[in-house]
Design a protein that fits this description.
Layout (H helix, E strand, L loop, with lengths): L1 H26 L4 H32 L8
Helix pairs in contact: 1-2
């Protein structure tokens, strides 16, 4: 289904931004600017992971075209 793919893909892109922020902190020289990125990266990652879980549940419960869901 196209809806599932595009919503999931957009959430994964946001998660990739958070991973990039975290890697920027890990791989660069320690400074107050890089340390300021770490809480934001973890917060964005946590929110996106919750949104992915909510999206999967909503898709399976409301939008999935089949009568049965095989897990």
């Amino acid at each position: 289904d196209k809806y599932y793919f595009w919503v999931y893909f957009s959430l994964v892109i946001i998660l990739a931004v958070a991973v990039n922020m975290y890697l920027w902190y890990v791989l660069s020289e320690d400074s107050p600017e890089t340390r300021a990125l770490l809480p934001w990266a973890l917060l964005i990652a946590a929110i996106v992971n919750i949104l992915i879980a909510i999206w999967i549940i909503c898709y399976i419960c409301f939008l999935y075209p089949g009568d049965k869901v095989l897990i």
